[in-house]
Structure prediction request, 142 residues.
Amino acid sequence: VAVVVPLASALLGAVVGGVVVHRLTGARDARNAQRSSRVDHLISAYRRLVAASNRAQDMTDEQASGLESAIADIVLLGERAEVDQARKFLLRFRDEGGADTGPLLAALRSSLRRELMLEELPMPDPYMLRLGRPPAGASATE
Prediction:
């Protein structure tokens, strides 16, 4: 009897400890998967915003669709500052027929850099490269 009680106590402690560790590990893994998925979607949204930015009248249907889905992803998955900037962008776009993506991109970039544990850096100016392309039907040598 003197040996059974300590042995049972040790066995119970090991089982309970194992269950607790398993649950904590599962919860941590779920949070990490959620974080990774959120970051991946927001990086994709950032790229679609950049692709559609500063394209006065030459935005393609694909870029317009990318802009729409990027805004939707940010509204769904973004932090408060990103969602607020997305709303401001949407209101300006609705009211003025166009809007600057710069403040939204800056908020998204800042949040993503923080989430990825990268150094905080201000948004560079300019923040994208636009290469000219010949009009449809024109040869590259004209």
Notes: The chain has a mean pLDDT of 86.
